[in-house]
Design brief:
Elements lengths: L9 H7 L11 H15 L1 H18 L1 H14 L8 H24 L11 E4 L1 H8 L4 E5 L5 H11 L4 E5 L5 H10 L7 E4 L4 H12 L3 E5 L10 E6 L2 E6 L1 H9 L3 E8 L5 E9 L9 H22 L32 E3 L3
Parallel strand pairs: 1-9, 2-5, 2-8, 3-4, 3-5
Antiparallel strand pairs: 4-10, 6-7, 8-9
């Protein structure tokens, strides 16, 4: 398989040293308003036609995102290893267009512009049984699909109480757009850069009342290097241990959760139990982490192959962290840098 990233390119090295949270929004909020109103006036077909030149421009002017997209699409099998330049570029443009489409849906789902009742639901019966018993847990997600649509389905169809841990400061303007469209779009969000004992106690109380904590498990923490290298699509990628440490502290089940759009424009919600009760015994902590994170990656890979254009990590995902060459797991619990609940 050809590699879009060249080890000898100094520009590539600079890209590898960048944290995902440092990437700029690239005028996303202004562009979203523009496209949102075009969609409101003319519908999805005109909106998607307008996206074509916008996405080509983005691919041309954002080399980090372009190369990361090409690398992922080749790894997941959406682009042939020997594909020519135009084929790889076209696939990347479709990938970016899928992301832009998802941005619009984030706005539409809170303005009743999407019929979430039409979504397909593929839910592990053990999750439904736990909800019926009033038992909470941790829902591990990824930057795959559409969390806003997922959240709307959970809150409207099953009346599930969700507490979503997010790092939103890198996309604050976009969040402001959502709040202007619907003032309740930030409800139950916990803005964090890391977790401490007080936050864990707050979440433990929520889980004991049958609520669910939603946390992404595919991006390196903003203020922490607590990661484990896990094979993903053929190569080790640094993934955070924080979500699994949190589930271990809460001593509750952990479920994989995703919501993504199929080619027929209908959303599919997928939920699978990863572990019945997350425990991290001190004597074999690393072994337990590797096991559960391997199961998480298995679900992530399976869903990425099913809907490759729903993967929205446009940065060098497999790049080693700066100053770190395959570091071991750090077993000291993470420390807090910022916790700001928007609602309790």
């Amino acid at each position: 398989m050809s590699a879009p990233l060249s080890a000898g390119d100094s520009r590539e090295e600079a890209e590898r040293s960048s944290h995902w949270a440092s990437l700029q929004e690239a005028g996303m909020s202004t562009g979203l308003w523009f496209l949102y109103f075009w969609h409101k006036l003319f519908g999805r077909r005109v909106y998607r036609a307008l996206l074509v030149p916008v996405c080509w421009y983005f691919a041309l002017t954002r080399p980090v995102a372009r190369r990361a997209s090409m690398q992922f699409l080749q790894r997941v099998g959406a682009v042939a290893p020997n594909a020519g330049g135009f084929a790889r570029w076209s696939a990347t443009v479709r990938h970016i267009r899928s992301f832009a489409d998802a941005l619009l849906d984030k706005a539409l789902v809170w303005t009743n512009g999407i019929d979430i009742r039409a979504a397909r639901v593929e839910v592990d019966p053990r999750f439904d049984a736990a909800v019926d018993r009033g038992e909470g847990g941790v829902l591990v997600v990824a930057h795959f699909g559409n969390l806003e649509v997922l959240r709307a389905i959970g809150e409207r169809l099953r009346k599930i109480q969700l507490h979503i841990l997010v790092h939103t400061r890198h996309a604050q303007r976009f969040n402001n757009v959502l709040k202007r469209l619907n003032p309740e779009s930030g409800e139950h969000l916990l803005q964090v850069t890391d977790l401490d004992a007080a936050t864990a106690a707050y979440l433990a109380d929520a889980v004991s009342r049958g609520h669910f904590v939603v946390i992404a498990a595919d991006r390196v923490p903003v203020a922490s290097g607590h990661v484990l290298d896990v094979p993903f699509l053929g190569e080790a990628a640094p993934l955070p241990i924080g979500p699994w440490v949190l589930a271990g502290v809460l001593k509750c089940p952990a479920y994989w959760l995703a919501c993504f759009k199929e080619p027929d424009d209908r959303y599919t919600l997928v939920c699978e139990r990863i572990v019945e009760r997350m425990e991290l015994p001190r004597a074999r902590r690393n072994e337990a982490l590797r096991s559960v994170m391997g199961r998480y990656v298995h679900e992530l890979e399976r869903n990425c192959r099913r809907a490759p254009l729903a993967w929205f990590n446009f940065y060098p995902f497999w790049a080693p962290l700066p100053g770190r060459a395959s570091a071991p797991v750090r077993t000291r619990p993470p420390t807090v840098t910022s916790v700001k609940p928007t609602h309790e």
